[in-house]
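Progress against Task 2.4 (sequence-to-structure conversion) is shown through the following example record, which the project officer requested during the mid-term review.
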Amino acid sequence: RIGANKPNFCYAGHLDVVPPGILKDWTTDPFKPSVKNNHLIGRGANDMKSSVAAFVSAVSTFLSLNKKFSGSISLLITGDEEGDAINGTRKVVEYLKKKREKISFCLVGEPTNPNRLGEMIKIGRRGSLTGILTILGIQGHVAYPHLSDNPITRLLAMLEPVNGTELDSGNEYFDPSTANVTSIDTNNAAGNIIPATVTAKFNIRFNTNHRSDDLIGWLEEHFERVGGPWHAAWRTSAQPFVTPFGNLTDLVLAAVETVTGQKPALSTSGGTSDARFITTICPVVEFGLVGKTMHQVDEHVHVADIDKLAKIYHEMLVQFFKDGS
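Structure tokens generated for the chain above:
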């Protein structure tokens, strides 16, 4: 943290990365970054070490031009974003709550742009609920189904509400909530046996019209109506959140437009990020590089985009402390 006064502008990012995959498929060592054809190549170049570097550069420039400024700048740089998020930002946020540390606004530097820098700002994210549903039946010969209880029959009825469906019509900030089955497994290698059990996994990406507990209650009531023995395990990895349109989103919009010349869309699309923890303590918005190659072999980012991103971040700092937001 630089400075001790309010308002506080916080930048959040992570330094952990996903595994490189098959090393021979890379054109360069994924952990020895190199520049080829004006692109920086390396694991984490896109997601999201270049963004962290851009913000550090922006702060350096800002401080060289503003020896004294009213407020403070903080950096929340962690690991475990690419993992189960047991530690990392989750733990830091818990610590900040206990210490009653106040953040006025947080910018998360995740890659947010689909194709070119300046296209998209993330002002929220959907929630994510995973269900593992197991149906119990009675194994038997398919030629004598009356002696068996096929659990797949009941499973298909139970999965109807989450089998490639939309749960609502969306709202001002979000597209419709969606649900999809991701796997069905009977552990049955034979074609003439009715299985004893079947397990299905499904995931719901839901907007602010829902909370995970409500979705679980709704589905479990449906399962009971279908009937028969079953049990379900649930994992909520994120609740939905949004930073409403206002001064903070306008500030980020203006900074991006000033540097890139284009007005970005305000979006809540995509997966989860550490912003889901930060939103519990302050308003949060995400903006970073183009995300087309994140997690891929030869992950890369255009060098010029890193320079532009540093200028965008600097412009955000200038506008934030000029207005005393």
